[in-house]
Predict the 3D structure of the following.
Amino acid sequence: MEELIPGTVVTLRVDRDAPFGYFLTNGEEDVLLHNNEIVGEFDQDEEHTVFLFQDHQGRLAASMKIPTVQIGKYDWAEVVEVKHELGAFVNIGINKDLLVSKDDLHELWDLWPQPGDRLYVSLKTDKNGRIFGKLATEDVIRSISKPASRKNFNKNIKGTVYRLLLAGSFIISEEGFIGFIHESQRKREPRLGETVQGRIIDVKEDGSVNVSLLGRGHEVMGEDSERIYAYMESRGGAMPYWDKSSSEDISLRFNMSKAGFKRALGKLMKEGKVYQEDGWTYFKKENI
């Protein structure tokens, strides 16, 4: 006889039908298979393999939709709703979303996953038998990872954030590489479960990689040039900054280094969009 435990998969026989579904049994305990949890043709004379969960009333229920996320089995699940008083709800493929408790999330709400983000989860039960999403540990993530090689150096990388530390963030890439993003290699701290894109700036001996979310030099220069140009547009085509402005003034106004500012400003001058005079930078007339 198979024990009926939420979060597991069992094979049961049909005991009786009901207006809203069927009751399945293991011989001692019954569980409802609602009509909206039936997949394909349903034969009352056959045994059926089902996933057990608790419905919205807290009653044990069954589904013929077998999720890949189960107790002891991990997979990616999409975040569908976030409630600060509870946590993040994920979709595992049945008609009830499961909660990843706020106790398992970061203390800062800004770093919580948002709808559309993904979490690598299993299931767990509390003392009342309720099932919750269980975040994968570092060991679990490492068990599904693959080592990168030196040929991956400087290649673009896309991955999902699975761990947050004070010093930076860990991701697992689409290829399965474990990546670390140091706080100096990002403009903001990504959320747990967020998908990020960057480039590999180092491949370590164990096959894990260091990742930068900052653009390559020419990419950053383009972004910085656009920021400077937009600022000048907001001021009617002139600004009291030029390539001899102080590092402090540049950092305070544009949040970039003086070297980066000079490169970006030089790009605009080379393109014939701006010119400098007496400590100011101006749009050229044909660009006004």
About this structure: The chain has four domains: 9-63, 76-136, 145-212, 217-287. The two ends are 81 Å apart (CA to CA). The CA atoms of residues 108 and 191 lie 10 Å apart.
